């Protein structure tokens, strides 16, 4: 945690194109970052922020991984990938990279081993004292033998940070390190990074949408232009003052500007809030869980009303949402659907067939990719109505290609600004587009109840605003919205039109 | 699917002498015994090997319950294989039971016993190896004692940890696809397997980036945080394995039942 040697960064006309892509991820970048500077890197989705970080980490090599390079990217005057090789041979890393997905950053099964991994690769002779020091440095609460499989997301990120810090890097490359963490976990990771930067004097380059809490750490803001070059560059106060509206349009949570969701619920007051789902002493568990994650819940989901389920990590928000969505059977107690929702089926949603469920309760999972089933965006929207239409017909009566009326699917795509992507593969969309698509697919079967699990997780300000406005609109149409979330802004927005259940 | 993947979690450390032996030694024992038994199909060699293995079992520190939990898959193979040989094996010697086309003879009974014992005797050391060895320790031993390429060994080890996560992902996918209107069925399951693959590749790519960013994959010497030592005791363990192979083969030859499968 000492003697870090912050490098000087120079990009001269630098560009990178990934091997399978037509467009350049970054192009014509001229940038100089002094040793030890702490830079916030902004830019719209697809502006090449992550590519620049990978380049600085020395991970982009036209010969090894394919891809095309233009210009040069230098660390202390040496090509970044060459600098990485040298650093490995010298036994001290120049850069340390921390990514978004906590699960994909744990290498080994025991915490101590995981931190030691980088040191081994750098051929460090006396490993364990440095492992202990790094783990103390991030305030890691467990010992060397603790299994990594039992860590929470925030603990995992701190462990990954320890693994990076053990190598004594002079430059931290942080790619949305708290985007997938709950507020408490994010706070802890952030304060740990702040302490580390203070102690080591290392520089950092941070990519992050939610800027506000990071501001005390930052001396400079660089905004990348999609398609190439630097769009704005300067001290945070100046950049945010001058570029506020364009940054908002790019999805950045500009400090001091609370996103507006504008749309008022149109007919909220007029619609009779009829009960759709009633939980009595409900206990719920995930498949594979021995004990219920949540117990004794009494609540009612009503048409045209919102229900925000909040609580700290591990309180069972998602588990409860899955049970309310009819995806798991109650572990104890009762979940009853009213006749308005069941429309002729039995009162227990978990007993409904999948094709019957989608036209009654729609669920949006935290990770949109879990729900993609078709090769195109338009196909994704057609799937739901097809499944509904297939109900009640035997397999020999089903004809491929004959689908239930998909009236409205184009309208839905337009409403969610996805119409220009109708033929794109869902997996190739940006994070915000994937989130909008996952909501669109649920709307295609017009369910009476929408259940959303952390819908705003890791989303930029623009997607957040659109999503919130859409949910309020749906309430106005008389649908019920249930959201399991720790996003306090979203809870506030929904609470005006319903109630909050704190677990 | 999930039952299959659940077995890949971290092993608890055991104090039993054979469990603590170097994984490379355990691997050598399992290999030597397997080679001895693969050469022949006869009840005496397999039976003696199995008896000796069972004698060593108390020193492996496995509770009967854990033993059964990790070995049921071998029983699943051994028992049907024995029954099939019993019924359909080459008839030879006196007929014991005759039911129309199905006859059980002394010859087919002896082959059935031999086959069953053989599968058990080959499988047991493997089960003990897997049930008493932490994957990390196995990787250390493979790279340091057996000098397999460390890039390959460590990549496989990191991948193994991701495989454990796939069990959870599978359950989430099942629910996520029910929420899209898909029930259970062959076609649905295939689609879900594909989705799981996509997720696994995505995770694997990020994990590879993480590993490279920490200096993995650069062609340079590396050190080991957990030196894997091959002690005289490990030598004794290997010798024990050789002894089991030799004694059982000798017993087979002495009894006149040993026959080289390859000829």
UniProtKB/TrEMBL annotation, chain A:
- Keyword Transport among record annotations: yes
Entry-linked PANTHER family: ENERGY-COUPLING FACTOR TRANSPORTER ATP-BINDING PROTEIN ECFA1, HEAVY METAL TRANSPORTER
Report keywords, A-Z: ATP-binding, Nucleotide-binding, Transport
Q: Report which superkingdom the organism of origin falls in.
A: Bacteria
Please report the organism this UniProt entry assigns to the protein: Kineosporia mesophila
Protein name per the record: ATP-binding cassette domain-containing protein
What start and end residues bound the annotated signal peptide?
A: none
Give the InterPro entries listed for this entry: AAA+_ATPase, ABC_transporter-like_ATP-bd, ABC_transporter-like_CS, ABC_transpr_CbiO/EcfA_su, ECF_ABC_transporter_ATP-bd, P-loop_NTPase
Indicate the segments forming the ABC transporter domain, all copies. Answer: 9-252, 277-503
From TrEMBL, chain B:
Compartment(s) where it occurs, according to its Swiss-Prot or TrEMBL record: Membrane
Which domain of life does the protein's organism represent? Bacteria
Could you tell me the membrane topology recorded for this protein? Answer: Multi-pass membrane protein
Q: Does the keyword Transit peptide apply?
A: no
Q: Which Pfam family, any one, appears in the UniProt record?
A: CbiQ
Its keywords, alphabetically, are:
Cell membrane, Membrane, Transmembrane, Transmembrane helix
Span-the-membrane segments of this chain are 27-60, 72-90, 110-131, 232-255
Q: Which InterPro entries match?
A: ABC/ECF_trnsptr_transmembrane, ECF_transporter_component
**What protein is this chain from?**
Energy-coupling factor transporter transmembrane component T
